[in-house]
C-alpha cells in the first residue's frame, strides 16, 4: 500500500482549469471572477477573467511546498470590482489524500456561499511527483492454450451414473378410443355378396286395374254443360234487350 509519509518539503502542482455555474453577483453587467488558492499561509491568485460571468476559464498553474501534517488546500472565488470591494462568490476545501497517495487528481469541487448554499463549481488538476506507486507484483501468466486431443484405444465404457433409456411400459395409461356407432349399416365388402332374400317383384308398366272399385261420389253430379247453348244467345229474362239488337252475322257495308 502506498504511503503519504515524508511529504515535508515536497512540491504540489495545482492547475486551475476554470469555474462554471457561478453565482452572479452583478446586477447590470457581467462579473469578473478570479480564483485564490491558499496552503500553509501561502496564497496564489489567478488573473481576472474579464466578463467571465458564470463560466470562467483560467488554465493557470501554481506550485506549493507541502508541509507534514497539512493535507488540505483552500480555494475561493471572487468577483473583481473597480470602484468597490470585491464580491465573495464561494469557497471550498480540497482534500489532498488522493493526490498524495496516487500522484494525480482531476476533480470538480462544489463552491458554497457564506450561507452554505450552492455557489458554483471549480475544476482543479493536482500533481504530486513524490507519490510511491503500489507494486502489486507480476501475476503468473496462464500457460498457452493447446487443445487436447483424446486418445481412445477402445470405445469408452458407459458411465455408471448414466441411466439407460427407459423401455418399459408407459407411465401414463393407454386410452382406447372406440369408433362411434353409425346409424346406417356398414358398407358391404367388395365384391358384393348375394342376398339371402329373394328380390322384390318388379313393378309392371302400365299398372293393372285397381283391385278396389271406386266408391260413389259424395256429391251428385250437376247438369252437363255439353252441348253448348246456341248462338246468338237467347234474350235473358233478367236483362231486357236494348234498342239496337245485335245481328250475326253483321250486314255488309
TrEMBL record:
Compositionally skewed regions (Pro residues) per UniProt: 141-167, 188-235, 242-253
Compositionally biased region (Low complexity): 168-187
PROSITE patterns (UniProt xref): C2
SMART domains: C2
Disordered: annotated span: 137-253
InterPro entries, per database record: C2_dom, C2_domain_sf, Ingression_C2_domain
Regions annotated as coiled coil: none
Protein name (database record): Elicitor-responsive protein 3
Name of the coding gene: LOC108848647
CDD domains: C2 (cd00030)
Domain spans labelled C2: 1-110
